[in-house]
Amino acid sequence: MKKVIFTESAPKAIGPYSQAIESNGTLYISGQIPIIPSTGQIPEGIKEQTKQVMENIGAILKAAGYTYDNVVKSTCLLSDMDNFKAMNEVYGEYYKENPPARAAYGVVKLPLGVLIEIETIAVK
Fold it and tell me: Would you say the pTM of this structure is higher than 0.90?
């Protein structure tokens, strides 16, 4: 069974996709970019953008009845791999113990000119 997850506490999709889909105890969160849901603004700097992305992911996890502890895999897309260390500092604050598996890629460009996008998979 496929269940669409939506929350006003995370940015609305900017294309034909859902914030997240839950199926058979697995939550697939679409790539989140650092849009502040209440204002539509994008914070400046990689640390601030990473924090906002993680907060957006947290809001979706919560809406679906999951927590960061349920996250098993993340994929981080960076517009500049020189931001890798700073991104890791913030990302690590959300996964202090038993962090999920992860991949990180440098990409040419991200939506709306942001510095980071993260997609996430969580399992109950």
Answer: yes
